[in-house]
Structure formats: C-alpha cells, structure tokens
Amino acid sequence: AQTVTQSQPEMxxxxxxxxxxxxxxxxxxxxxxLFWYKQPPSRQMILVIRQEAYKQQNATENRFSVNFQKAAxxxxxxxxxxxxxxxxxxxxxxxxxxxxxxxxxxxGTKLSVKP
Amino acid sequence: xxTIHQWPATLVQPVGSPLSLECTVEGTSNPNLxxxxxxxxxxxxxxxxxxxxxxxxxxxxxxxxxxxPQDRQFxxxxxxxxxxxSGFYLCAWSSGTGDTEAFFGQGTRLTVV
Lengths: 115, 113
Known about the structure:
The structure holds 2 protein chains of 2 kinds.
Chain A: E1 3-5, E2 10-14, E3 19-21, E4 24-26, E5 32-39, E6 46-52, E7 60-61, E8 64-69, E9 74-79, E10 88-96, E11 103-105, E12 109-114
Parallel strand pairs in A: 2-12
Antiparallel strand pairs in A: 1-4, 3-9, 5-6, 5-10, 7-8, 8-9, 10-11, 10-12
Chain B: E1 3-7, E2 10-13, E3 19-26, E4 32-38, E5 44-52, E6 55-58, E7 64-70, E8 73-78, E9 87-94, E10 103-104, E11 108-112
Parallel strand pairs in B: 2-11
Antiparallel strand pairs in B: 1-3, 3-8, 4-5, 4-9, 5-6, 7-8, 9-10, 9-11
C-alpha cells in the first residue's frame, strides 16, 4: 500500500525563524506528484506547494521551499521567516496512479508559530 | 474557474437517523472525487474515491456509502448514523492525472447525538 509518513506530530517555532517539516513516502510508481497542504483553524485546506516527481529541481513558493530527495523518498517542507499566520496543521500528500489514482495524506504536523 | 461546493456546513443528527452530504464541482469535467473524514486534531482518513460516474472505491469498511449519480456530483450517505460517525467531512476533487492541485470543499462538521 502507498503510504505517507509525517514523523513530527507537533512542532513550534519562533516568529521570523526557520522550521523544517519532515515527510517520507513509499511508492513503486515512477510518475507521481507530491504536495504540502496547510489547514488553519478555519479547517479550509490550502495548497502550499507542489512537486512533480520527474522534476529534479526543488519547488519554491515565496517563503516555502521543499527538499525533494527522490532516491530517499523524502519530501520536507522548509518555512523561512515564519509568521504567526503560518500556525496550522500541515499535511504531506501524494498522488499516484494517473487516472486510477488517489490522494494519500500523511497524519499531519501541527505547527505553532510563537511571537 | 473551477469551484467546489459542499453542504451543509454543520449538521447535528440523532443516532440512527439517515445522512446525506452533497458535493458538486463546477468548471471541470471527469474529475476524481474524494470523501475524507477528519477526527478532531488528527489527519484525514480517505473514505471513498471515484474516478467516474457510478465508479466508487471504498477504502474503509463502515456504515457509510457514496454515490456519484452525475459526473460532478458526489454524495456521502448513511442509512443509520452511529455516534462514531461524528467528525469533519471533506470533499475534494483532482484531475485524473494529478498535474494540478486537489481542491477541497469547506467541509461539514457532523455531530451525532
């Protein structure tokens, strides 16, 4: 079975500092996509960043960047200059299998940004 | 542009009553559709997903069922709710190839009393 593992249930960081959230996944597929989603207290799911497995270059979106290590099946999220509004649950998500595939969620990491 | 509608936003139902949650998508065709449940402070559990009309895959055995009567409509149902069915339910859609992000509804907070 395809799995996504987030080993850090909770993390905290001081405002303006940098934090890295870990994610590993397990697949035998060659074509897949990886995402980080943010779920603030409103519970609305918000896409933070996405990575295509066939791309070697790490994706970046403003203060958010990933470290995609395909051989190690690792997909960590780095948040730079953390802001209070970054406080949320963060989910690592994979999509495998093309038209037959589905989204696989990790259990999430609860991030608290402290002033 | 694509949008996803999920309703109702909140629901309080007695044990043993039926359930129907509806999700519709606009602005795309032949999406993959998903129902997830999220317990308080925890991750998402995939309940059902569908790659086409009438095609439903169930991930977790339970007293819930799903149907897809139209291409962009996904319904989560139960004939008799249990207390353990309480939770936050999210509908989502994605393209069949995964080359775009998944889009989520606003969620339904279900409390079974």
